[in-house]
Amino acid sequence: MTETFSDWTSYDAWLVKNYEQYAVYKLDEKDGKVVAEYRDKSTTAAPEKK
């Protein structure tokens, strides 16, 4: 999934609110906006512990 935010503060607020549900795997800044690509944590396998 992809979400576009007007600035880093908007992204930070979204991340705090949705941290338990979504895993962000890519962040870009395009034309002054923050673009986040993320997955639902329930469909993402947890990394193996060594």
Q: Could you characterize what this model shows?
A:
β2 (22-30) and β3 (33-40) form a beta hairpin. The protein is elongated, with a radius of gyration of 12 Å. The chain has a three-stranded antiparallel beta sheet. The termini are far apart. The protein has one domain (2-43). It has one helix and three strands. The protein is an alpha+beta fold and 50 residues long.
Observed structural traits:
22% helix; three-stranded antiparallel beta sheet; 1 helix; 50 residues; single chain; 42% strand; alpha+beta
Count all strands and give the number. Answer: 3
Label the structural class: alpha+beta
Helix content: 10-25%
Low-confidence stretches: none
- Mean pLDDT equals 91
Spatial strand sequence of the major β-sheet: 1-3-2
How many domains, as an integer? 1
N-to-C SSE series? EHEE
Radius of gyration: 12 Å
Helices, by number, come to 1
Strand content: 35-45%
Quick one: biggest sheet?
A: 3 strands, antiparallel
Shape field: elongated
* Beginning-to-end CA distance, first to last residue: 29 Å
